[in-house]
Design brief:
The chain has 5 helices and 7 strands; from the N terminus they run αβββααββαββα. The chain has a 5-stranded antiparallel β-sheet with strand order 1-2-3-5-4. It has a two-stranded antiparallel ribbon with strand order 6-7. Strand 2 and strand 3 form a beta hairpin.
Length: 209
């Protein structure tokens, strides 16, 4: 590792080793920021070119995570942001490239017989099924008027028993008419008591002569 690289980054714990690539947690000395340094020990020109080619094909968001590339005395170094969920640097590169390798669907322009391009017309939206008209309301059957009740027959007269022989001979006994009650007389006041007899007055005595 060159002295200039060591003066700018402090290597910490080695977290992965895959296909001769060592990945370390590191710290940028000037800012104190936590980064990752991936070292290719004893990497030749062909291996470095292959790695550069993969880095150049990274999609934009992943390419911005590569901070620095450096040629060392005994290899090559790649400095990246801290990568959460990291397993190894070669695997991370392959996964990023595979996610961006899905070919985009290109629309091939159509040309008419006259050589004019034909504009594609989007398909019409499916037609909605026709809506059946609402059913007419069903009228209720007419209700027959209630039958009038026939008038009741008049009450039959009460039959009276024929008079007996006694009644035919002597006639019907008249019923006594009710009499009004007699008005009570006022009570008689008691006579006042007789006065007591008065004593006789004595005759005057004649004066002597």
């Amino acid at each position: 590792m060159s002295e200039d690289f060591q003066s700018r980054y402090r290597l910490l714990k080695c977290v992965a080793l895959d296909n001769q690539v060592r990945s370390h947690n590191a710290q940028e000395i000037a800012t104190g920021r936590v980064v990752m340094v991936h070292l290719l020990d004893d990497a030749g020109p062909d291996e470095i070119d292959a790695l550069r080619s993969k880095l150049d094909r990274l999609p934009g968001p992943d390419r911005t995570r590569v901070l620095e590339l450096g040629v060392l005395t005994a290899g090559f170094a790649v400095v990246t942001d801290f990568l959460p969920g990291f397993s190894s640097f070669p695997r991370w590169l392959d996964e990023r490239l595979a996610s961006s390798a899905a070919p985009a669907t290109l629309e091939v322009p159509r040309v008419s017989a006259a050589g004019q391009p034909v504009r594609s017309v989007p398909p019409a939206p499916p037609m909605a099924p026709p809506v059946a008209p609402p059913a007419a309301p069903v009228a209720a059957p007419p209700v027959a008027p209630a039958a009038a009740h026939p008038p009741l027959p008049p009450a039959a007269p009460v039959a009276t028993a024929p008079p007996g022989d006694f009644t035919r001979i002597f006639g019907a006994t008249p019923r006594p008419e009710p009499t009004e009650p007699a008005t009570p007389l006022p009570p008689v006041a008691a006579a006042p008591p007789a006065p007591a007899p008065r004593a006789p007055t004595p005759a005057p005595t004649p004066a002597p002569t």
